[in-house]
Amino acid sequence: MKHLFRGFWIVAILLCCSFQQVLAQMQMPPIPVDKNVRIGKLDNGLTYYIRKNSLPANRADFYIAQKVGSIQEEADQRGLAHFLEHMCFNGTTHFPGDALKQYLERIGVKFGENLNAYTSVDETVYNISNVPVTTPGAIDSCLLILHDWSNDLTLDPVEIDKERGVINEEWRSRMSAMMRFQEKMLPVMFEGTKYANCFPIGTMDVVMNFKPQTLRDYYEKWYRPDLQGIVVVGDIDVDAIEAQIKKIFSDIPAQPNAAKREYFPVNDNKEPIILIAQDKEQPNIQAIIFNKHDATPDDQKGTMDYLIQNYATTLISNMLNARLNELMQVANPPYIYAGTYDDDFFVAKTKDAFTGMVVCKEDAVENGITTLLREIERARQFGFTETEYNRARAEYLRQLESAFNERDKRKNEEYVNEYVRHFLDNEPIPGIESEYAIINQIAPNIPVAALNQMMPALVTDNNQVVAILGPEKEGLKLPTEDAIKKILADVKAEKLTAYVDKVSDEPLMAEAPKGGKIVSEKTDDIFGTTMLTLSNGVKVIIKKTDFKADEIRMKGVSLGGSSLFPDSEIININGLDAVSVGGLGNFSAVDLEKVLAGKKASVSYGIGDKTETVTGSCSPKDFETMMQLTYLTFTAPRRDDDAFASYKNRSKASLQNAEMNPRVAFSDSIQSGIYMNHPRRMRMKADMIDQMNYDKILSMYQDRYKDASDFTFIFVGNVNVEEMKPVIAEYLGALPSINRREAFKDNKVNLRQGAFKNDFIRKQETPKASNFVLISGACKYDLRNDILLNMTSQILDLVYTNKVREDEGGTYGVYTFGQLSKYPKEQAMLQIIFETSPAKREKLMQIIFAELNNVAQTGSTESDLNKVKEFMLKKHAEDLKENDYWMNSIDEYLFTGMNPIKDYTEIINSITVKDIQKFIDDLLKQKNEIEVSMVSPDKE
Fold this sequence. Notes:
By secondary structure, this protein is of the alpha+beta class. Helix content is about 40%, strand content about 20%.
């Protein structure tokens, strides 16, 4: 590997030839394939990937990827690729009816979370994830399920008819302004091609009326072994899995005379294609600018030049995005947001596009679009500077180094995703060891000039597509097609100058603070932590783990929060996040990103209702940088009036049409129903932004962070306590301390008591009924009740999936969520949310309450309770290997006194059906019930 490239030779050629010419001349060697994955192919054409991986322990993921999607549909099949995906969970030869779901849930594999699938234009992928492989028969059963998905669906007409309603409700729930716009985009952007009418959800006319044989025709034509790939990754025996795959899948017949799987081309266009649309439910103005260019064919992705091209396009996008972000910081920014990326041309794999996206201000639409185009054109003409490239490359290599450091800590899903993409798109899978070695050898020898020569190939003078979506409202005029064409032409003709990169050699901190001392150290047996007390009163808790090699997580917390400010300051309270826009110390927010390039260290603050926090994460080698950022967060928030003006300008523009989104009215009604219009639950509106006072916001921030003496910092991860101690003493020990002792204030933000119902009409483009139910009541705050509430919500999910989704075909999903809170009162909340058609709402609401009352009267079934137990025990075992879980558990213990880890397994195992029944019955008996429904009637 070390002799793969001769650096001086690459540089010499790059400086005199185009980037593409260089790659062609060099006849790059092939990208190696990770030796730790076993790849094979059966005689019938089925491909398989198998890898041994022990994270999480005793778990495995089973995937089947299909090289088919909605692009294969005929006119009378539109939506059937996606419909077929649903039917894979509704009956197979070896798992009739819903036996597949029932079996997997019994072993702790949760439908929706561990058992799922997706359908897109060119592919369909199914997954059974986090399977407990120590469960007898689990491995063979999962392979048998993949086999049945491949070739043995029953496609029972009764089950098909039941699923029509579910998919109709899925369509209803997703039919937003953006979805409608995307459906309009396809026929215009892909006119005359197969892509013009290939949206996976299809048409509801087909979904509700197709004959079962039409679905079977699609299945038998396209679900076949030469287009299928099996991926198994986990704590398994590779040889045994391979033997089972050969045994189980070899009976699937090959189809030598099968229909050709075509990848359809996308037409080029000399003149710009422009689409402008408005929608009554679209809250902002978005413009997407596609610069189409040739995609790398799959059969050419196996050589090193493809790896280099990906490196180059990634850095180009990152550098351009940094420029666009910089423009966003001026007092009157040209847009709300802008960004670029290089990827597939919307839904097509056969054409790529360098794509820019801008969210425009209503009074500056043309300026926003022009600015984005201008910066893309500036990069095309002049490229990027050496200093920009050095930062972008350092950041890229740092991320790659982090991935390399975690090479023994990678989870199954990371490998699975790589192998699925290798099968479907022939994306390289060199393995992180090879990729790290290759890129670290190549990257230092690729000059910025090479990337600059690549820009003209990404952005040409033709093949442009512009799509604009905005609100449909009185007085708003979007640019015309002629106006957009003129902008495109004017920017090309504009005399531009090269970007000037302002850089500084100033360190993050010019000198270290005068640190404090560690005055006490002890070991805590509750969580196995080291506890330090510093001379300024700061408490430190350190938990060493080996879950990740390149991660230390931090959280500092103190009681008080915004509760200590009066209700009259609610607008400024909502603006406290604006302090970060100014940067830290001597560095603006833009300059701060520059000085941190190549380091894995970040810190942010948060002022919540009851606490103020400082959170961060870093690589062990960048721990001091994280401590410096923490010190500056307390002591040196930077005032930047232009950046604050920009924050207000962009916030106001983004909120200007928020009410056009129907979900805002639904959310407002829920908040009003629960909190009775308490000012602290007020939603920010555009006309409130001007009332924000920067001086007051900075003063409030400084008040919360001027005293660190009551802060407790938690560190979890790959820590070396002895090496950390002097750094902690130097920076955290130097934080300001005035030794005040505070608690948060109860501002009486109480839940409504008793019964409340609000059904209201809000006309929408798609008839829909959105429904919310909240059951609440007093409940002791302890781990047992927290588990009982969690179990109850999961049991109700199972019940509602069966009764409301499957039996009635009434909704895509009912979502049940429980929350136990300690402050200001110990209470439980159970939320139930779902969407349906207006005609079905009343019946489904009756079922919702009937099933809720049934659980309260007779409890759940033993079967449902055991499914939930299996999942929770499996999930808990996985959580115990996560830094975040330990961080949150320690934080929970400090805040409420509840230890979420101790006795968890014992409590789970002890809970009975009677316990569930009594828990929900006690909650319902308190008769605190809020019901909110927003209905858009069916159109006449």
